[in-house]
Amino acid sequence: MAQWCTVEEKMSNVIAVMTRKGGQGKTTIATHLAVRLAQWVAAEGKRVLLVDTDPQGHAAAALGVDAGGRCVGDLLLGKRTFKETVLSANRPDVPRPNLYVVPADSRLSQSRSRLERDIVLDMMQEGRRYKGPQMDEVLERALGPYLSLFEYVILDCPPSMANLEAATFKITRWAVVPARMAYLDSHGARLNLDDVTAAQDSGYGVRIAAVVPTFYRERELVARGQLGRFREVYGERLVAEPIPQSAAVEQAQASGQRTLFELDMDLRLPVTQAMDSLARRVRAL
Ligand SMILES: Nc1ncnc2c1ncn2[C@@H]1O[C@H](COP(=O)(O)OP(=O)(O)OP(=O)(O)O)[C@@H](O)[C@H]1O
Ligand SMILES: [Mg+2]
């Protein structure tokens, strides 16, 4: 049975990997954080949960976990229980005994619209007396009772959070914001920080853990200049160690849906070291 705890305590372990722009490395960071943190807390008998809130449904696939038709949308709609939706990410060839995943698929888009419609219909029927869940409460209602079972809960967010944006901010304590090191993409990260600031202004307790430069090519002058600008704009403290662009990320995927931590176990590659450094930063929050 889930333990009771306050909203503050519930939220304290929820980390969302988010940015409005597509293809910035969100899913890659979310899965690597989940795997690394799970490795670290295993000895303490603690668990980590990765929740996919993206209808593209890449998170479970990236870990080589067969979702078997399970989708977080059914959980949000109350059609399935948490227990019926969560899966172990453990594999005989890639041991992850304490890592769990709530997968998503394209049905999540329909679930989001359906939720909104149901809530509006209820409100129209009940008029001003409506006391049911609001759209920003749907993730908290679905996951809240279970958050305390996990040392960390990592949310892999979609590029467009649509009507789940407020719900995500409501349960998130820390935002990790990846930003691809290409000149035109820095604007997207800025927008995302604006979103977080707006959420804070609306009373949500979300804080920015790090802006993470991704796809970094140190040899390129343009990329180094871009990183310098990032540090000026966001402040040295907020900018994490850049994650290099590396073919090893996709090689790890190609060799049986592994993360770098499960292929390059001795952390020989700079890209693995950078992911490890990000996970250490999150561990120290
Ligand atoms: N550091 C890296 N070096 C090389 N390739 C990478 C790196 N990080 C991610 N990739 C690859 O780039 C692609 C996009 O990354 P990813 O799926 O993590 O981005 P995303 O932000 O989650 O995308 P979306 O917005 O579509 O959800 C993937 O094929 C991934 O394997
Ligand atoms: Mg993704």
Walk me through the structure.
There is one protein chain. By secondary structure, the chain is of the alpha/beta class. The protein has one domain (11-283): Rossmann fold (3-Layer(aba) Sandwich), CATH 3.40.50.300. Helices cover 42% and strands 12% of the residues. The protein contains 12 helices and 7 strands. The protein has helices at residues 7-11, 26-41, 58-62, 72-76, 82-85, 107-126, 138-143, 165-171, 186-201, 221-234, 247-254, 270-283; strands at residues 14-17, 48-52, 87-88, 99-102, 152-156, 174-180, 207-214. A 7-stranded mixed sheet has the order 3-4-2-5-1-6-7, sandwiched between helices. α2 packs across α12 (270-283). The longest helix is centred in the middle third of the chain and has 20 residues, at 107-126. Mean pLDDT is 89; it is low at 1-6. Residues 26-27, 54, 58, 156 line the site of magnesium ion (MG).
Which structural traits does this protein have?
disordered N terminus; 285 residues; binds magnesium ion; globular; alpha/beta
Number of domains: 1
What is the CATH architecture annotation?
3-Layer(aba) Sandwich
Count of DSSP E strands? Answer: 7
Helix content: 40-55%
Order of helices and strands: HEHEHHHEEHHEHEHEHHH
Describe the sheet with the most strands: 7 strands, mixed
> What is the alpha-carbon Rg in Å?
19 Å
Uncertain residue ranges: 1-6
What does the overall shape look like?
Answer: globular
Order of adjacent strands in the largest pleated sheet: 3-4-2-5-1-6-7
Structure ligands: adenosine-5'-triphosphate, magnesium ion
Class from secondary-structure proportions: alpha/beta
What's the CATH H-level homologous superfamily?
A: P-loop containing nucleotide triphosphate hydrolases
What is the CATH class name?
Alpha Beta
CATH topology: Rossmann fold
Q: Please indicate the percent range of residues in DSSP E strands (runs of 2 or more).
A: 5-15%
* Contiguous helical run count: 12
Straight-line N-to-C gap: 27 Å
